[in-house]
Design a protein that fits this description.
Elements (H helix, E strand, L loop, with lengths): L5 E10 L20 E9 L4 E4 L5 H7 L7 H4 L12 E3 L18 E5 H8 L6 H4 L4 H12 L3 E4 L2 E5 L2 E5 L8 E7 L2 E7 L5 H5 L10 H14 L6 E3 L5 H4 L9 E3 L13
Parallel strand pairs: 3-4, 4-5, 5-6, 10-11
Antiparallel strand pairs: 1-2, 1-12, 2-3, 7-8, 8-9, 9-10
Bound molecules: zinc ion (2 copies).
Amino acid sequence: MEKTWQVRALKYADRNSRTRADSFIVDDDHDSQHSMDYFIWVLQSSERVIVVDTGYEYKEAARRDRPIIRDAAKSLEVIGIRAEDVDTVIITHLHYDHAGGLDRFPNAKFHLQKSEMEFATGPCMCEPDLQIPFTVEHVCEMVHKVYSGRVIFHDGDGEVEGGVTVHRIGGHSAGLQAVRVKTTSGYLCLASDASHYYENFMLQKPFPIVHDLKLMTAGFETIQNLASEKSLVIPGHDPLVTKLFPADGRSGFVWRLDQGPTTVVPEQC
Ligand SMILES: [Zn+2]
Ligand SMILES: [Zn+2]
């Protein structure tokens, strides 16, 4: 029988100086404040650990003037994991807030979509607007990992471990992938930036950073199909996750996702 995994979200930053216009292309209310949380995720079976995304580091925080609350790699210690012991990392996409600090995982192999690497290193990056969410140092780091044999490329759907698969969604970034995880509650889908907020996928409201709008809206369906139920779709940046799911331990920045939400996910969030 396929093994099941525990899934945790670790929050490492938030940003409150945003408005709803920064989160939704079409929305009647453009001006209200709209916060964003930043997470990495950890999958644990009885014998294995997989980290999903690496967050961004203090240097990047200074560069973008977007402070972080804690070092994402170091924050793993609160659940008994040392970044240097991790051998498997899934990178959902190469945006600065998901693929910084790869060197903090010196013994890991990185699972990435082929199309994301091509996008981040190809002609699209001649376009200044498309460069904005990427940080060239992060992308170069990944190139180094390719040359040292530490990147496992996927092209569409792929298996990382029994019960953990990746699925190319595209839309927000050309090779954005969601992660499907088998848990005791059914299949959970870490949507990452396939849906930053519940509102994006539940109310079909595209996020303004978009590479292919049609793929983004199709992705809203795909992530729901990947999960056993809607409540097991985890948006990439929604502060509501920290309200709906139970806290794990006393650190104040870890939430347990695999047992499902303790509160019903509002239909109109
Ligand atoms: Zn992104
Ligand atoms: Zn993001």
